[in-house]
Amino acid sequence: MSTLTLSCPVPVTTRDHVSLGHGSGGKLSAELMRDVFLPAFRNSTLERMEDQAVFAVNNGRMAFTTDSFVVKPLFFPGGDIGSLAVHGTVNDLAMGGAKPLFLSTAFIIEEGFSMEKLRRIVDSLGRAAKDCGVQIVTGDTKVVDKGSGDGVFINTTGLGVVTEGVYLSAGEARPGDAVLVSGSIGEHGIAILAEREGLEFDSPVESDSAPLHKLVADMLETTHAIRCLRDPTRGGVSSSLNEIAAQSQVGIMLDEPSILIREEVRGACEMLGLDPLYVANEGKLLAIVDAKVADELVAVMRRNPLGRDARRIGTVSGMDAGWVTMRTVLGTTRIVDMLAGDQLPRIC
Amino acid sequence: MSTLTLSCPVPVTTRDHVSLGHGSGGKLSAELMRDVFLPAFRNSTLERMEDQAVFAVNNGRMAFTTDSFVVKPLFFPGGDIGSLAVHGTVNDLAMGGAKPLFLSTAFIIEEGFSMEKLRRIVDSLGRAAKDCGVQIVTGDTKVVDKGSGDGVFINTTGLGVVTEGVYLSAGEARPGDAVLVSGSIGEHGIAILAEREGLEFDSPVESDSAPLHKLVADMLETTHAIRCLRDPTRGGVSSSLNEIAAQSQVGIMLDEPSILIREEVRGACEMLGLDPLYVANEGKLLAIVDAKVADELVAVMRRNPLGRDARRIGTVSGMDAGWVTMRTVLGTTRIVDMLAGDQLPRIC
Questions:
Q1: Residue B58 predicted with pLDDT over 90
Q2: Minimal Cα distance from A348: which residue of B?
Q3: Domain boundaries, position A79
Q4: What are the b/e assignments for B206-217, b being 16+ CB within 10 Å?
Q5: Would the CB atoms of B41 and A143 count as touching at under 8 Å?
Q6: Which of B24, B57, B112 minimises the CB distance to A57?
């Protein structure tokens, strides 16, 4: 298996135009990063390719992360672009083991956008920040002419202080480690899709959008034997685990029956031909941890409402380095590859 | 004069839709900030309304600032959206007395955008960052469907360390202070407009887009008797000085003959009915300084290529608090008010 190649059939250097897949969080995104952005911006912090930069400032370590939110629709069951813009960035800081402190917000608004909707979004963003205990300390607003945007895009950039003694990295997974997830998967993506396409369920699927920094704090208070944390957003569980497998040069074996997927999400995925492993989450985390502390950590996570369905879903191995595989409910084994492009564009 | 009111005729609370003027940096922007953003995000750092947040972290003070760039066209004489996105954010850090250290970049790309142009922009951004000595340590890329964006929008968010003993604020101007500017004004706005409208000049006007942190370092090495620094971007010299006059509750009297405006810029402004005091700059700074050090500072600024045309253009007074006035070349006095909306949308 390790003789196969992970590269795309058409390298970015020979592509003439940017496609939706380049924003997918899948292989095309990775390729764009590797071929266009990294060569131009090269430095050792960026090259670590984590979801947040960690560096030393004033005798401490800080985490710094940025995300633009272009989710469509702007309002969806379980949240809106405002709360999502806070949770997404708070979570990227938390995955670096940082206590989130400060946010910047930058709005790009399309001319003619409803002032009432803007107010709802801004209020939601402010409330979410307050609930997370982070301060929005600086901001920017641009307005583009009608037809040059799509309602509202929001960038949030976050700053936090990394807990002393904590060094989390996608390059730290080791054979024998356990793979944990904090709950059921696929809810954010399906909630967005249902709203966008007008799908109806018996019991509606809500986005899981939520801030995970307190769950992470609970985990780090228990043990520092945590190698890596990732929130499986764009590209889902599959993309996050593939990144870890590649950066740590380990294999990751998932156990399908252990993975919790809500009935409505499973049904929607079957109906739409989607694989829930690739569907975005906005309030879940994956943790690669020393197997010795796995049970204790799962117990700790379950005491936090955002981790009440936490469980172990897989194991890191020294074989098939760079690959994620899954033992299915049928007892067979399949490769869980990274998608080239996107199942669901504009999911966040 | 001080009995007049600065508020807009139609408050934002009764407006139904966002207009281009809300992104202008003028009165409408201020109103949107005051009525929509500030109430939702309220905290003491944000309320200072500087172009950067300054806060204590790890026993030091840091500056943090964000800007989205939606300039149209993407390439213009003297720069492009990539270099502009670096200079704009580096300058906002510098105006807070901070040494710029780290940048995040977040791209929102429209589906179908030319890969070759994207590469040029990214390369330009990377080169500008390198020239400034700042590292791009984290980033994000989103792609929106065709017709939902306009080529490329870029957010840069910057982080820097504030020089010890330096406290700059738009609220610190005092009667008797001198108003300095680092050079000629209006070039960025006219360069963009000329490119957009296909105007031709005998000698072309180039954007003044440039990083000012070294000029600021030269100034702060000379003296700490500097009250406030501002880069007069959107809304031009007029908006920056009006903000200072309002926040410090002082009057500012400009001396028109002292203000340097290049011949081509003056001609273009006359032809187009623009007032150069309202036209954006991207490589100039305004400094409010103790009058005692004004001459020395002008001399220091002139030794730096980016300040070679530095000069004193006005005086802070205790009269007409909150107002900017100008003694014209004709010897009359006029009010230099803040515009409600925009002379030139999408200038940065």
A1: no
A2: B142
A3: 45-162
A4: bbbbbbbbbbbe
A5: no
A6: B57
d(CA A58, CA A66): 21
Return the pLDDT at B186. 97
Q: Assign residue B158 the CATH number of its domain.
A: 3.30.1330.10
Q: How many domains does chain A have?
A: 2
Nearest in space to A173 (alpha carbons), one of A222, A102, A245, A224: A245
Q: Do both B206 and B318 map to the same domain?
A: yes
Chain A 8-37, CB below 8 Å of chain B: which residues?
12, 15-24, 29, 32-33, 36-37
Q: In this structure, what token pair is assigned to residue A290?
A: 């020393």
Q: Is residue B347 part of a domain?
A: no
Both B191 and B324 in a single domain?
yes
Number of CB pairs < 8 Å for A and B? 277
pLDDT of B203-229, one tens digit each? 889 999 999 999 999 999 999 999 999
Contact residues on chain B for A55, CB-CB shorter than 8 A: 102, 137
Average pLDDT over residues A194-223: 94
A5 — pLDDT class (breaks 50, 70, 90): very low
Beta strands in chain A (DSSP E): 53-57, 60-69, 75-76, 79-80, 98-110, 135-144, 152-162, 178-181, 226-230, 251-255, 286-289, 311-317, 324-327, 333-335
Residues A127 and A191 in one domain: no
| Chain A residues 168-197 within an 8 A CB cutoff of chain B | none
pLDDT at B14 over 90: no
Which residues in chain A are closer than 8 Å to B42, comparing Cβ atoms? 126
Q: pLDDT for B144-165, tens place per residue?
A: 999 999 999 999 999 999 999 9
Task: Determine, yes or no, domain membership for B38.
Answer: no
Question: What is the value of ipTM here, to two decimals?
Answer: 0.94
The 3-state DSSP class for residue A325 equals strand
Answer with the one of A162, A188, A207 that is the final residue of a domain.
A162
Q: How far away is chain A from the Cα of B66, in angstroms, using its nearest Cα? A: 6
B252 falls within a domain: yes
Instruction: Select from B8, B89, B115, B233 the residue whose CB has the most chain A CBs within 10 Å, as the one to mutate to test that interface.
Output: B115
